[in-house]
Amino acid sequence: MTWPVRPTLRLRLALWMGGAALVVGLVAVLVAPVLRFELATVVVAAMVCFVVGYVVAGRSLRPLHEVTATAKRLSTDTLDDERIRLDGPPDEVRELADTFDDMLDRISASFEAQRRFVSNASHELRTPLTVMRTEIDVALSNPDDDIAELRQMGEVVRDGCDRVNDLIESLLWLARAEAEGQGGLSKAQLTDLGDCAEAMMATARRAADIMELSLAVSRLPAPVVGDPALLERVAGNLIENAIRHNNPGGRVWVLTGGDREISWLVVGNTGADVDAASVPRLFEPFSRGGDARVGRRGAGLGMSIVRAVCRAHGGSVSARALPEGGGLEVRVELPAAEVTVEGA
């Protein structure tokens, strides 16, 4: 259907007001004995109500036009600055404008995080590739290199390939975890956080022995419903970080447990002092929590993966800097699963 005049909300409100006045007037004419010229008065009054309604509706709906105009001006370049910032009474229109501004704040933060992620990923990939390219160019420029020099070049290139491979694998894990959080878990089954941690312990014990770390494990039932592979990655990332960012001869502890509502996994370690103010940033992609926690290996995506997996499972993760002796303790909390004991 093609409308001769655009049926705007303002026009419809004005028509409703004018129509209501006309109906009331006609009812009065039919009910009470009036003269013919009084019917014309009713029509004029209805027209006046229409005009007044049109003006009042236009004034009331002006903030909506501001929302529309702001939305049309939005782009990736203006997303940080364009806001409605509507003044006035806290009515429904003000609430809509404030909600729109809040939405823009979230979108802006998301875009900024995406830009930072792409920039950091590009940097992380470029660094090992540049090193490998330099080593290869040096080797090709000197035809007299002996076997030892060529082997050294090969080791550098191999380490660079490992670093790139680790980064790509971490990016894929992060993408999968975030996709699971948006669309629901594609694989969900009863599992236990203690089992997930134990699956990672063989490699952890070898790495701990190399650094002469004491590794303490306390397993109490921590049943959850989720993706075992993703949850094992959570435990593995936390344990790997606790070992990597530690002092020789330090300690690592892994604890699991739960109650009727939550199941939890705690991984803590000794190590350098961690600034409490920097702890929330540890869960941002490519954040390593300052120079004190930078290892030779790792892309800085482990904690981001942990957070994304926790969110996908309806849980949360938190960390706290330990005040005595340095180090960090990370706590994962997920909804507990109901476990039926056979024979009960």
Automatic annotation (TrEMBL):
Keywords: Kinase, Membrane, Phosphoprotein, Transferase, Transmembrane, Transmembrane helix, Two-component regulatory system. Coiled coil: none annotated. The keyword Kinase applies. The keyword Transmembrane helix applies. GO terms for cellular component: plasma membrane. The chain crosses the membrane at residues 12-33, 39-57. Its main location: membrane. It is found in: Cell membrane. InterPro entries: HAMP_dom, HATPase_C_sf, HATPase_dom, His_kinase_dom, HisK_dim/P_dom, HisK_dim/P_sf, Sig_transdc_His_kin-like_C, TCS_sensor_his_kinase. It catalyses: ATP + protein L-histidine = ADP + protein N-phospho-L-histidine. Pfam families: HAMP, HATPase_c, HisKA. Signal peptide: none annotated. This is histidine kinase.
